[in-house]
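Hey all, quick one. A colleague (J.T.) asked me to put the adenosine monophosphate job into the tracker so the inputs and the structure tokens live in one place instead of scattered across chat threads. No bug as far as I know, just bookkeeping. Sequence used:
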Amino acid sequence: MRDENCIFCKLANGDIPTATLYEDEDFRVILDANPASKGHALIIPKEHYANLYELDETLAGKAMVLAKKMVTKLTDVLGCDGYNLVQNNGECAGQTVFHFHLHMIPRYKDDGVGLGWKLNELTDEDREDILSRI
Ligand code: AMP
Ligand code: ZN
């Protein structure tokens, strides 16, 4: 299913031209319009799924296999030193476009890209609470 009000549906299906690195029957891989670093790209399914919760399981697997192939190729092409895969779900997690996408962010030594978070201590209470409910 596609959502006619969704910009990523339009981009993924070629209704709006975009810088495409790769395309197959399930996905389009494009350069992010506001890159965190040179080569920042997005894997976008052609069908509309708002987020990881909704994403078809087979496509979820295919997206990770594709990420592995793209990251391997792009590391060679860009000459970067590492990669972050980032995938946001929900506004509180930083999602701004509500059509599933997987960020592939090349990392260069000392690039200053900020993806960090404050490291907290795992408390006994949280550990026991989570393990007892999973
Ligand atoms: P997120 O915050 O995880 O939802 O990521 C949305 C990403 O989509 C951001 O990195 C935006 O820069 C990117 N983006 C939004 N519109 C476009 C567009 N028209 N073409 C390429 N990237 C886009
Ligand atoms: Zn969509």
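Adding what we noticed when we looked at it: Residues 78 and 127 are 41 Å apart (CA to CA). The longest strand covers residues 102-107.
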